[in-house]
């Protein structure tokens, strides 16, 4: 008969390989065919199996072993040729999987090698491990060792960790163990109060969005064999009946899912409370002419939630400000003098005991100027600025007009500062800023207006023509001006005779005809220029109709 077709592996485990195939070409499952199967490796061969089905499981094999499996067809006592494939059995699973250690981000696993295996490199086994919780799963880790640390886990979380063996691309079944990571340690352990025979400690819970199910193991050890351990659910505890003037060590472990965090430990003596630590990183956030805003970091070993009071005071040569207290790490001290140097002090109070002071030197800003006046200089090419002195200290004044910037010392207030090189008939924003100790007051502005300058007269006035009732005049544009419309010049013309004068007329052109005149009469004709409401001198000539 023809051989089987498409021989393939359906499955395998550590002691068997399941094979399947298609019937020989030209045959059907209903024909009287017998299929024979055998798997052979270096150590010998399996029992020969026969079946009338197109699948068979060859068992009794050795784990993690490579086999060559053959299938052939028998019909009427005659065999087909064999069809072969190579495949391996799965390795045995690991044994005795167990947890070696854990912390708040990892679980360390170890195990024994699979049964019928050895731990030598020649065994060519690879171990894969993976831990999963409700939030997802860790990335599988591979190793040829029999221990692995699964890290990158979440604190105080329950995990199901699996380990399986792989050889020649075939994996064993998984062996699983359930375990939890340790919680994060408690935060900001501190002494709340102490007497000659008792100490009260407190702390903040670990960083964890789910604080349900937490307990705390608390231990107090000291002289005379003092060693007391308690388990509580709140975050504060008092140990009493202690020896006066004795040092005690206090440790707290957070516990969840039966696993403890690393301990937080603090030592204190019975007796009056010691001074709290001073504030850290005292700095100025802002200032104006009457206040300074300060901020600082909490003292070392403290937290914002502790029962701490901050006291603040700013002093200058003239006295001191009112003393302020706050539970916040920022405060604004107001009621100060403008442009004055201050030494600001901050200290901590806890349980009636004060820390040392931390100081910072800073100045208030100066007051702005007031009563600014601005007057144009004759001709319109400059202005004179005058302002009143600020009420308190000042060093210099920064003056800006248009794009010009100048600095003047404090003696210039009430005296005036001249700014030149401006344009006539223009408006300018003038800004004056008080400066003292490197600090600037808010700038004060005023709008300045320069005078208009009279334009130059026309040039070369002449008669172009005349008849018995009119005279036509023309002229050249004034010196240094052009005749473009952007020059914004208006020309006025008037002709007079002994008997009276005609009405003045205006034009933007450099020629005009004055009509309505008497025949055979002598006239004096004048032309002048106007710009921005300011007129030039007149240019005159005599002519008759």
- Please indicate the count of domains: 6
| C-alpha end-to-end distance | 142 Å
Proportion in β-strands? over 45%
**Would you identify the regions where 5 or more consecutive residues have pLDDT less than 50?**
118-122, 481-486
- Summing up helix and strand content along with how strands pair, one would put the structural category as mainly beta
| Relative helix content | under 10%
Could you describe the 3D structure shown?
Strands 3, 4, 5, 7, 8 and 9 form a six-stranded antiparallel beta sheet that branches. Strands 12, 13, 14, 16, 17 and 18 form a six-stranded antiparallel beta sheet that branches. The chain starts with a strand and ends with a strand. It folds into six domains: 5-88, Immunoglobulins (Immunoglobulin-like, Sandwich); 95-180, Immunoglobulin-like; 187-269, Immunoglobulin-like, CATH 2.60.40; 280-363, Immunoglobulin-like (Sandwich); 370-449, Immunoglobulins (Immunoglobulin-like, Sandwich), CATH 2.60.40.10; 459-544, Immunoglobulin-like (Sandwich). It is built from no helices and 52 strands. The chain is an all-beta fold and 545 residues long. A hairpin with a 3-residue loop joins strand 21 and strand 22. The model is unreliable at 118-122 and 481-486 (pLDDT under 50). The radius of gyration is 52 Å and the shape is elongated.
Task: Briefly summarize what is shown.
The protein has 545 residues and is mostly beta strands.
Sequence-ordered SSE layout with sheet pairings:
Elements lengths: L4 E8 L4 E6 L11 E8 L2 E2 L3 E3 L3 E4 L7 E10 L2 E2 L3 E6 L6 E8 L4 E6 L13 E8 L2 E2 L3 E3 L3 E4 L7 E10 L2 E2 L3 E6 L6 E8 L4 E6 L10 E8 L3 E7 L3 E4 L7 E10 L2 E2 L3 E6 L10 E8 L3 E7 L11 E8 L2 E2 L3 E3 L3 E5 L6 E10 L2 E2 L3 E6 L6 E7 L6 E6 L7 E6 L2 E6 L7 E3 L7 E10 L2 E2 L3 E6 L9 E8 L3 E7 L13 E8 L2 E2 L3 E3 L3 E5 L6 E10 L2 E2 L3 E6 L1
Antiparallel strand pairs: 1-2, 2-6, 3-4, 3-5, 3-7, 7-8, 7-9, 10-11, 11-15, 12-13, 12-14, 12-16, 16-17, 16-18, 19-20, 20-23, 21-22, 21-24, 24-25, 24-26, 27-28, 28-32, 29-30, 29-31, 29-33, 33-34, 33-35, 36-37, 37-40, 38-39, 38-41, 41-42, 41-43, 44-45, 45-49, 46-47, 46-48, 46-50, 50-51, 50-52
